[in-house]
Design brief:
heterotrimer; A: alpha+beta; 5-stranded mixed beta sheet; 6 helices; 38% helix; globular; C: 284 residues; alpha+beta; Uridine Diphospho-n-acetylenolpyruvylglucosamine Reductase, domain 3; Enolase-like, domain 1; 4-stranded antiparallel beta sheet
Chain lengths: 164, 805, 284
């Protein structure tokens, strides 16, 4: 075992510090040191995206990043995306359009979708399917996930227009 | 007052009862990352377990040295079969009447088999210690082919007495498990011999795996002070797990609490009892601390719960006009190293004898030979009722092959052989009594919607264009018509380890008119908390939003057999409706008392009881609930609760008609799904939104299985598809949009007429996708080619047919 | 899946990186995005006592396009390759290729340097760089040197790079003419069953130069000089394409895996190449 490192992260807007072995995977560090159990481990090999978080503005599979690599980074997990009394449009939309079933992929799915809509606020169905292809869902067959994201995009765009 | 009373339709809408697309209550927490899955369980002092697994498919264990692992800082225990033997836990019973090693006892029989269990301070130390356990293996000859296994001198299961009967009768070879038969073989053979037309085909339904996104795992916590064991885990049948845990450990059942928290998908993977569960319990008992075991994806694919692996040979006979006269089916079933199939006790091949499908076949025979090989145990029903995917694939391929033999359109061949509406209830040749159906209506609707005749014309034009060298893409039209058999019981036929396959609901109405209901099932994404509340809302008049549904905690929920085989709605859903009716019956007495009329003079109206003929005189369920707790009503016990244990009189038989249109690139073997139409008849529809979601999901799992998803082994028994790089789970990019449709033929014996739907799209989807691929090549002489239809196998089909010039 | 323990280093400049590599020799490895290395470590197929994270090392990032020459810092990610408009104008084949690598999350982390440096025959960038006749800049204890992409790969996971060297940059002349990157894979996230990178130059109706490289059809990427020659001077008619395909088939040596047997891969290689040539020619 190697020595533990002092890890400092800004997670969901809060500064967090803890000791961890460098080899600890970011996903486990978030889940076990910080009790952020929203992101999950699905495949272990960066194929499924259940562990997706946003790190310094990038969508990242946190099962394939060592906590040491993330040291100093700013991270957003599903827990930082909306609050119970102020859900993110995507969170509402996934419920509205039945974009989830067992819920295991959902945190990674929604976290990725927030970034996708930042990159491309007005995506076509093909854009969504391609932009979400790093996230596997075993339950929904994706059709309602695509619908949820499309609807959220429309809503976010009209809210933006209204504000302007 | 009447002016204030909401309109009847509004009251009805407020209930959010059956038939409406109620939004799911589960989603509020899931969308915020607040689900509670087993790996989220974190207890003070919790240790982590990890397995040493066999790299070999068949080997004798000469020695296991745990010294170096034990010496590692942070390692608390290393368990081997030797440690479990004194507790008699080194083997455990399987659901199929066999037994299975918990930890390798002298030899290993499949790659990835559990050899030792390391318990350590955290998952990192545990993983390091696994590397330090030294196991000395002596390799033995490997059998991965069931036909070879039945000929081989190599004895896989040395623990079984040669020549002794197995759990399902005589064994004809030391690697043979059982022969299970249904129907009348002599008559069937006679019919086949004298038939005008006979089509014969052998098809391999490859080994695959349910692969839910969450792997299996458990957390065991033995409280030595109180003598209580709490076990959290990914259990599709928590109550059965409690009973098994009690029988195995000797801990009395009241001292065991099993909790299935949120489950990240099951699809059959989480029905069985796995060595990891047992080892986490033993480790907690040994260490006195909570022990967590979570398998990784590779372990999941290699060791827990494969599905399918059936070699099926069929012979089907018909008149020249295409009327089917007989069906013979023989299956060689590869069960792997232990017979750990998750089937009802009396059905070692599940309900494979539904293989006469949706057709009126006068005589039939089925024989299934189960065989041991050096592959992982399992044989679970992956998103289907017990072996029904195999059965439906078999008959839907046999129909296609017969159509080729008869030079007939496969849609028409189906139509002329369907069981007719007026024949229901229909007694099938292999024993089942189909409760209801209207196949012709569904089929006609499907073919009309997709404009079937136009599709065939387009296909014919494409073939001509292909022959002229104008295109390299062929067009396939996949058809499938399936009948499922879901909702086991009845108890007289179906049990799991002796537990009858009933299910249950217990409901309590609170004084203020809200309620909690608990069931013996457990949702894995099906939305039980939403839909069961809808059933109760319609039955009791209490709004669904005021009803909490709880499942999965054996200390609080009534005993039930769990969720798999689409049995939740047919069985627990019925229990729920009946418990609701008991509530209503008592409410009626209370209402009559409050309204000062005779019981028979009030009637139920959406959310209240009204005096017959005087609708202005009523008591709402809310008022009745309050009265149940605050008034002394002569002859009526206080409170408002009900329990129902439901033993279904028969299974339910959902059905559906699917059509897939596919383009196939002959040169690369790449298929493209152009259109998929799915008509499902699941009887009464409780929540159309959830039904549609189930159909999308089941079809996508069908697409995966048909087009590439397999657990493949090499000749040495090495798993070749151990990660998601090779094990095909489609992403949004590979998945098409689906068109859904329905007819409604309620089940005549189910209290609300519902039949179950979660698995239908998988059962019907696999043959539909496969038939589309195969249909594309029919004009060029293809009769049958095995799944999975991945690029190279499609390419090979084209190549074998000479389509590459 | 838990990797073995390691010591973690995050140096800020190349001198420190080289010093660490010299100190620890075989026990040290540099890591860029980590999306090839970390899965190997988690599977315990790679044990690396000293892991050197390059993320803070100055001078490894950035895309420059100047005077017809493109330079990519080794730490440029696939995502950046896709997003960079200057690059899309100068060498659009990079975007086309990067889009068929892995998935969005992986492309955010995966770097072009990591993709070429580890010598994985499944990776797409090494073949593409051979097609572009790129040069790799290697920095080591003895300073800097350049190696041609076409000379870089020796065998699977074996390259010209010495253990204590780091690949820091990739540069190539912005290609003229038509281009195509064509890849067949089983699904998102898969390596190629076969992939072809093609760049063609056209003058009038004649092909004046052609560069063709294939991916995952041998233990190294295959740049087929003969295939290029088969097209050069022709009108890229059926006979020329067929000659190019034949030349490639003579050069590749695929092995059977879960994607399929050798005969299938060879056939698909020919089809994919044909399509790539046609698309590149249409764009030329």
């Amino acid at each position: 075992m190697s020595d533990k490192m002092h890890i400092k992260l800004k997670v969901n807007g809060e500064d967090r510090e803890f000791l961890a072995e460098p080899r600890e995977l970011l996903i486990y560090a978030l889940r076990e040191h910080l009790d952020l159990t929203g992101p999950h481990v699905g495949c272990d090999t960066s194929h499924c995206g259940a562990c997706t978080v946003t790190i310094d503005g990038k969508s990242v599979k946190s099962c394939t990043m060592f906590v040491a690599q993330a040291n100093g980074a700013e991270i957003t997990t599903i827990e930082g995306i909306g609050q119970p009394d102020a859900l993110h449009v995507l969170q509402e939309s996934f419920r509205e359009h039945h974009g989830l079933q067992c819920g295991f992929c959902t945190p990674g799915m929604i976290t990725r979708a927030t970034k996708l809509l930042e990159e491309n606020p007005d995506p076509t169905e093909e854009d969504i399917r391609f932009g979400m292809a790093g996230n596997i869902c075993r339950c929904t067959g994706y059709q309602n996930i695509v619908k949820s994201i499309q609807a959220a995009a429309t809503e976010m765009n009209s809210a933006k227009e209204a504000a302007e | 007052m009447n002016d204030m009373t909401p309109d009847r339709d509004d009251r009805s809408a407020n209930l959010k009862g059956m038939g409406c697309s109620r939004k799911r209550v589960e989603d509020v927490r899931f969308t915020q990352g607040k689900g509670n899955y087993v790996d989220d369980v974190k207890l003070p002092g919790m240790l982590h377990g990890d397995f040493v697994r066999s790299p070999y498919a068949h080997a004798r264990i000469k020695s296991i040295n745990t010294e170096a692992a034990m010496a590692l800082d942070g390692v608390v225990a290393v368990l081997t079969a030797e440690d479990l033997a004194p507790l008699n836990l080194h083997w455990m019973p399987t659901l199929a009447g066999d037994k299975q090693m918990v930890l390798a006892d002298g030899k290993v029989l499949f790659q990835g088999q559990e050899v030792a269990f390391v318990v350590a301070r955290d998952r990192y130390v545990a993983a390091d210690a696994v590397e330090l356990v030294e196991v000395d293996y002596e390799e033995l000859p490997v059998l991965v082919d069931p036909f070879e296994a039945l000929q081989s001198d190599v004895v896989l299961r040395e623990d079984l007495e040669p020549g002794a009967d197995g759990a399902h009768g005589p064994r004809k070879h030391h690697n043979h498990i059982f022969l299970w038969e249904a129907g009348d073989e002599a008559t069937t053979n006679q019919v086949l011999e004298n038939a005008e037309v006979v089509a014969e085909e052998t098809m391999y339904y490859h080994r695959t795996h349910p692969c839910p996104l969450e792997t299996c795992g458990s957390v065991a916590s033995m409280d030595k002070v109180n003598g209580k064991l709490t076990l959290w885990g990914t259990f599709q049948a928590p109550h059965v797990v409690r009973t098994v845990a009690s029988l195995l450990s000797g801990i009395e059942e009241h001292n065991i609490r099993v909790i299935s928290p949120d489950i990240g998908g099951g699809f059959g993977n989480k029905v069985g009892v796995y060595p990891g569960y047992v080892c986490s319990i033993v480790a907690s008992i040994v260490t006195g601390k909570p022990v967590k075991w979570i398998e990784d994806r590779m372990e999941n694919l290699m060791s827990t719960a494969f599905a399918r692996d059936y070699w099926m040979t069929g012979r089907i006979s018909a008149t020249k006009e295409g009327k089917i006269t007989g069906l013979h089916c023989h299956v060689t079933a590869d069960h792997g190293a232990f017979d750990a199939c998750a089937d009802p006790t009396k059905y070692p091949a599940g309900f494979m004898n539904i293989c006469t499908g949706s057709y009126d076949i006068p005589v039939a025979y089925l024989g299934v030979d189960g065989v041991y090989t050096n592959k992982a145990p399992g044989g679970v029903s992956y998103r289907c009722s017990f072996r029904v995917t195999e059965a439906v694939y078999f008959i839907e391929r046999m129909i296609e092959v017969l159509a080729i033999e008869l030079n007939m359109d496969a849609a028409e061949l189906r139509r002329i052989n369907f069981i007719k509406k007026e024949q229901f209830p229909y007694k099938a040749a292999l024993g089942w009594e189909y409760d209801s159906g209207d196949y012709h209506t569904a089929w006609d609707k499907a073919l009309k919607t997709v404009e079937y005749d136009a599709l065939r014309r387009e296909q014919a034009e494409r073939i001509e264009a292909f022959k002229r060298g104008e295109t390299r893409k062929l067009m396939g039209i996949g058809l499938s018509f399936f009948t499922e058999i879901v909702g086991a019981g009845p108890v007289k036929n179906c049990d799991i380890l002796g537990m009858g396959m009933f299910d249950s609901c217990e409901i309590r109405i609170h004084p203020t008119g809200s309620a909690i209901a608990r069931l013996g099932t457990i949702s894995q994404g099906q939305g039980h908390a939403t839909t069961f509340a809808q059933i109760l809302a319609s039955e009791t008049g209490i709004p669904a939003d005021s009803i909490t549904i709880e499942e999965g905690d054996t200390d609080t929920a009534p005993y039930g057999l769990g969720t798999y085989g689409s049995r939740s709605t047919p069985v627990a859903g019925a229990a729920t409706a009946l418990a609701g009716r008991k509530i209503r019956a008592k409410a009626q007495m209370i209402a009559a008392y409050l309204l000062e009329v005779h019981d028979d003079d009030v009637e139920f109206d959406v959310d209240r009881f009204v005096v017959k003929g005087a609708p202005e005189r009523f008591k709402t369920m809310k008022e009745i609930a309050y009265a149940a707790y605050n008034q002394a009503i002569p002859g009526v016990e206080p409170g408002l609760e009900a329990v129902s244990y439901y033993d279904p009189p028969n299974m339910t038989y959902p059905f559906g008609a699917y059509v897939c249109v596919m383009d196939i690139d002959v040169d690369t073997g790449v298929p493209e799904i152009r259109r998929f139409y799915a008509l499902d008849d699941c009887g009464t529809r409780i929540n159309p939104m959830i039904i549609e979601g189930q159909v999308h999901g089941g079809l996508t799992e069908a697409l995966a299985v048909a087009l590439g998803q397999e657990i493949a082994y090499d000749d040495l028994g090495n798993v070749k598809t151990g990660t998601l790089m090779d094990f095909f789970l489609p992403t949004a990019w590979e998945t098409p949009n689906y068109e859904t449709d329905h007819t409604v033929t309620p089940s005549p014996h189910h209290p609300i007429g519902a039949k179950g739907v979660g698995e239908s799209p998988h059962v019907g989807g696999v043959p539909c996708f496969s038939n589309a691929v195969q249909d594309a090549f029919r004009a060029f002489g293809l009769r049958h080619t095995h799944m999975p239809h991945d690029h190279w196998r499609i390419w090979k089909t084209a190549n074998d047919l000479g389509l590459h010039g | 899946m838990i990797p073995a323990a390691f010591e973690y280093h995050r140096p800020a400049d190349m001198a420190d990186v080289i010093a660490l590599l010299e100190e620890h020799g075989d026990d040290a490895r540099v890591m860029a995005g980590g999306h090839s290395l970390i899965p190997m470590m988690k599977l315990r197929m790679a044990e690396i006592p000293h892991l050197i994270d390059l993320q803070d090392v100055a001078g490894l990032k950035g895309i420059t396009v100047a005077d017809g020459r493109v330079t990519l810092g080794a730490m440029v990610t696939q995502h950046e390759l896709i997003q960079h408009q200057g690059l899309a104008d100068a060498a659009p084949i990079l975007r086309e290729a990067a889009l068929v690598i892995a998935d969005p999350q992986v492309r955010y982390m995966g770097t072009v340097g990591g993709n070429v440096a580890n010598g994985d025959p499944g990776n797409d960038m090494p073949g593409l760089m051979q097609c572009l006749d790129a040069e790799f800049t290697l920095v080591g204890p003895d300073g800097e040197r350049t190696v041609s992409a076409r000379d870089f790969c020796e065998a699977a996971y074996m390259t010209e790079r010495e253990d204590e060297e780091v690949l820091t940059a990739i540069s190539f002349d912005a290609p003229a003419g038509g281009y195509a990157y064509e890849k067949q894979k089983r699904k998102i996230g898969d390596y190629a069953t076969a992939a072809a990178a093609v760049i063609l130059q056209k003058d009038g109706g004649t092909c004046t130069a052609a560069s063709i490289a294939m991916t995952n059809l041998s233990d190294v990427p295959v740049w087929s000089e003969a295939a290029g020659e088969a097209l050069t001077g022709t009108t890229v008619d059926a006979a020329a394409v067929s000659a190019a395909v034949q030349a490639v088939l003579d050069d590749i040596d695929p092995v059977e895996d879960n994607r399929g047997p050798v005969a299938f891969k060879r056939h698909v290689a020919g089809i994919i190449l044909t399509r790539a040539i046609q698309r590149a020619w249409d764009r030329a």
